[in-house]
Each structure stands twice: as structure tokens, then as C-alpha cells.
Design a protein that fits this description.
The longest helix has 15 residues, at 14-28. The chain has helices spanning 14-28, 44-57, 69-82, 113-126, 140-149, and strands at 2-7, 33-38, 62-65, 86-90, 105-109. With 152 residues, it is an alpha/beta fold. Strand 3, helix 3 and strand 4 form a beta-alpha-beta unit. Helix 2 (44-57) runs parallel beside helix 3 (69-82).
Length: 152
């Protein structure tokens, strides 16, 4: 099996990319061939180029990696056309927008948005209609705050 990897090998996300690559190698051992591509993480044109190379030239079976949410719209047409599964790992990133949803794109996140949203929806329906909430304003703090505001 050929796995395409979208990795950011520079900047403050480089450690996360090496963690993903090493964990896949440790888990899957030599059962797979890994084809890494440096994406510069937040640059949609670089993400599009990397995915195009992985799908059209490297003939990968699926793609795994880090992709900013603003890049999904750019890469979705190629993913849809080639039916190549894309698994996106984002730490504390935004949920997919309706326009970006695809049966070939799976978005996994360490974001607190999903669990917080569900918990708040239940609490507003079963417990109380108002609340006071304190959050840190970094990474997950924004997602938690947004989830509590978007509860209905």
C-alpha cells in the first residue's frame, strides 16, 4: 500500500509532522510505502501541488497529513475526481464547512469543538438556558467558546 504524507517540515509544526511519520512507521511497520511531501502547512497552492503529485504521479492509495482548513476547498475537486481518500489531522482546527464536505475527505481533530458542542446542546435542553463560561484564548479555547455559542 502506498500512503501519501502531507507534512510541514519547517516552522513550528515540524515536530508534529515527524511524530505522524514515525507513528505510522511504528504502527504499520514495513507493510506500506510512505511518500512524504512538504506542504508548508498553511499555503493552499503548496498543498494543492503536493496532493496533485501524490495522486497523479506517485499513485498513492490514500493521503494522510496536516492541512489547513482554507486549503480543503482548493484540493477537494482533485480528491473528488480521483476518489482518493484524504485523512486530515489538525490540532485544534475548525470543523469542516458544508461546502468542503466530501465522502473522500475525513477530518480528524484534537479540537474540543465537537464534544463541547454536543455537551452544551444537551445541557441547554436539559439543565439550563444560560451559563457563565471562562476560556483561555488560544487554540482549544477558541473552539470551546465557539461551540458554546453555536449550541442551537
Amino acid at each position: 500500500m502506498r500512503i501519501g504524507l502531507l507534512l510541514s517540515n519547517s516552522g513550528h509544526h515540524s515536530y508534529t509532522s515527524s511524530d505522524l511519520y514515525n507513528s505510522l512507521k511504528l504502527t504499520l511497520d514495513d507493510a506500506c510505502q510512505y511518500i512524504p511531501k512538504d506542504t508548508n502547512f498553511a499555503i493552499p497552492a503548496d498543498n494543492q501541488k503536493a496532493i496533485k503529485e501524490l495522486v497523479l504521479y506517485d499513485n498513492v492509495d490514500f493521503i494522510v497529513g496536516f492541512l489547513e482548513y482554507c486549503s480543503i476547498t482548493v484540493v477537494k475537486p482533485l480528491i473528488q475526481q480521483t476518489k482518493t481518500p484524504l485523512i486530515i489531522f489538525n490540532s485544534g482546527e475548525h470543523p469542516l464547512l458544508k461546502a468542503d464536505v466530501s465522502p473522500y475527505i475525513m477530518h480528524l481533530s484534537l479540537s474540543m469543538f465537537n464534544s463541547t458542542y454536543s455537551a452544551c446542546k444537551w445541557a441547554f435542553n436539559k439543565v439550563a438556558k444560560s451559563f457563565t463560561s471562562l476560556h483561555t484564548f488560544f487554540e482549544a479555547g477558541y473552539s470551546i467558546l465557539y461551540a458554546t455559542i453555536c449550541r442551537t
